[in-house]
Amino acid sequence: MYVGLVVLGALAVLAAGPYSGIEPVTLVLLAVLFVVAESISTMVDSGGEGDRTGISPSSSAALAAVVLTGPVGAAVVGFCSVLVVLRRQNLVKRFFNGAQFALAGYAAGHAYLLMGGRMGVPGRDDFPWIVLPYTVAILVHTAVNGALIAGLLRCLGVLQLRRPGRMRWRPVVGLELASLGYAMLGLLIAAIWGLVGLFAVLLVLLPLFIARWAFYQYVAEQHAHDATLATLAQAVETKDYYTRGHCMRVSKASGMIAQELGLSAERVRNVRYAGMLHDIGKLGVPTKVLQKSGGLTEEEFAAIQLHPMRGYEIVREIGFLDEALAGIMHHHEKMNGRGYPMGLAGEDIPECARIVSVADVFDCITSTRSYRKARSVGEAVAELRRCAGEQFDPRMVEALVRAVERDGWDPPVDIEPPDDGAEVAQQDHDDPSVPLRVAGEGER
Questions:
Q1: Helix (H, G, I), strand (E, B), or coil: what is residue 55?
Q2: In a 3-state reduction of DSSP, which class is residue 318?
Q3: Which of 12, 141, 203, 283 is 20 to 30 Å from the Cα of 212, by its Cα?
Q4: What would the DSSP string read from start to end of 374-418?
Q5: What string of DSSP letters covers 61-114?
Q6: At a CB cut-off of 8 Å and minimum separation 6, what does 319 contact?
């Protein structure tokens, strides 16, 4: 029903017109430019695991249409989104996209005219005053477009209303700034239209394709990084039957904490990398020690304690890890200074390491290990809060709690141990003298 109302609204605008004063050639060329630009959108990372958003330069053509052809012309250009054939979308999605762009362009066109803008090719005398109505048109176009999408997501149950304090604004602001940059390019298109006419389309398409190529290279590089690190993480998990998927879950939980803290998209990515590789040093720990179901000897415990330093040595030459290296080396430090490998305390422990420490222990408590059964999410939260201040940074603990309450958490399916007759020992492998109450893998 919602999609139908939006589409009917757009069709009503297109049918009502008026089309007087709009040059057909200009309208067709702008429509072609819009369709091509919309077809070369690129998916970019917006911060968290799986959080990806498409950015296309089509807003530059849509806003150029506002100036050159007015509200109705901008609506026609926007509705041409239904002609984008390079995306695998059904007709419902195509018509909704076309309708939302049509309504956004129509509203932006009226805002432009109300603020004193003039329809047609801007001349020398129109500058710099045209910037004000054009900026208002950009804001209205963004607001209407965003509101229509939010309404659809709300109807589908994808978007849940949140309190303002819990919104992750930074990734949204970054993406909007990128879109506004494309939108400002529309004024340049309108300005040169009167000088070069048809060639304005060619002059604009070239930098748009270059921008798309640059985005694609960036995304491809990120995919290569993720695949490489995931392979390293899997190499660690092949040594321990009980830790299948542990590194990826710690990566996910670390990213949830980082996002809740409002870190930038780049820092969130580095924190996820640290969570993914936090146990890479266990490649140097004997398998029989990792899979031991009983308590550890002093020598075995010492071998376990070396894994953060070994992990750092293994991956320190990977340049793009940045602060993730500190998270890998220090994720076993404790707030009271009794952790390892360097005995750092409080704020001296890198922020990335404090995040990974909480995520690591949370996943361990909610997972089955060779020495105990998995516990519930509620029990894990209670344990983290009990140890906050002494072992964990309370701010990281509460950030994880808020993220889990909002987004939920799916613990791994219980893993049945190999049938070797061994009993599960009720003792923590990080410290043979510590009972199981504190934190399995995060304390190993």
A1: strand
A2: coil
A3: 141
A4: ---HHHHHHHHHHHBTTTB-HHHHHHHHHHHHHH---PPPPPPPP
A5: HHHHHHHHHHHHHHHHHHHGGGG--SS---HHHHHHHHHHHHHHHHHHHHHHHH
A6: none
CA–centroid distance for 363 within its chain: 21
| Residue type at position 283 | L
The string of pLDDT tens digits covering residues 340-350 is 899 999 999 99
φ and ψ of 46, to 5 deg: -105, 10
Determine phi and psi for 45, rounding to 5 degrees.
-75, 130
Per-position DSSP letters for 114-175, written without gaps between them: HTT--SS---GGGTTTTHHHHHHHHHHHHHHHHHHHHHHHHHHT------GGG--HHHHHHH
Give the three-state DSSP class for 369.
Answer: strand
What pLDDT, on the 0 to 100 scale, is given for residue 214? 76
Give me the phi and psi of 81, to 5 degrees please: -60, -25
Q: Position of tokens 């953060």?
A: 308
d(CA 321, CA 377): 30
Query: Token pair of 281, please?
Result: 């040093």
Q: What is the dihedral of CA 348, 349, 350, 352, to 10 degrees?
A: -150
Q: Give 4-60 pLDDT, tens digit per residue.
A: 999 999 999 999 989 988 999 899 989 988 888 787 765 555 444 545 555 667 888
Nearest to residue 95, comparing CAs of 109, 75, 108, 81?
81
Helix (H) or strand (E) holding 196: helix 169-196
The pair of structure tokens assigned to 300 is 């075995």
Beta bridge partners of 52: 45
Q: What distance in Å separates the CA atoms of residue 363 and residue 46, rounded to the nearest whole number?
A: 24
Q: What is the pLDDT of residue 3?
A: 93
Q: What is the DSSP letter of 367?
A: S
What is the mean pLDDT, run by run of 10 residues, along the chain of 444 residues?
94 92 90 83 52 66 93 95 74 91 96 94 89 94 90 76 49 57 82 77 72 75 84 78 80 93 88 92 80 75 86 88 92 93 93 95 83 83 94 95 89 58 40 38 41
Q: To the nearest whole number, what is the mean pLDDT of the chain? A: 81
C-alpha neighbours within 13 Å on the C-beta side of residue 283? 17
> Strand pairing partners for 41?
none
Amino acid sitting at position 345: A
